[in-house]
Amino acid sequence: MQTAPVRVETCDAQQWLAAVLPSASERYITRVVYHSIFWSYLTPVAQEHITAYLTRIAAEASTERPLAWLRLELLGRDQPAALRLTLWPEGVDELLARVHPHGAWVDWGE
Description:
globular, 5 strands
């Protein structure tokens, strides 16, 4: 079995995303931003900056250079998490499932 070394980076989320996610990609490669139970730990300003950055680079997405934002985030206190996917260039945002925050169950969308 071959393993890849794990690299842990300590950085501000906004700065890290801009550094590792270029505004353009190679043809036929889907860039995917994924996070899980992360969003609620950000300040509202950081959330706005990340959303604005994704919106800006999403404007350059195409069928040959798509962008996906896949996230599993809490809906609120005493509520399940939501697994959502936004896929560009269309910009369609879809609720894929409601999920127990620790993975005990998944209720897939209709």
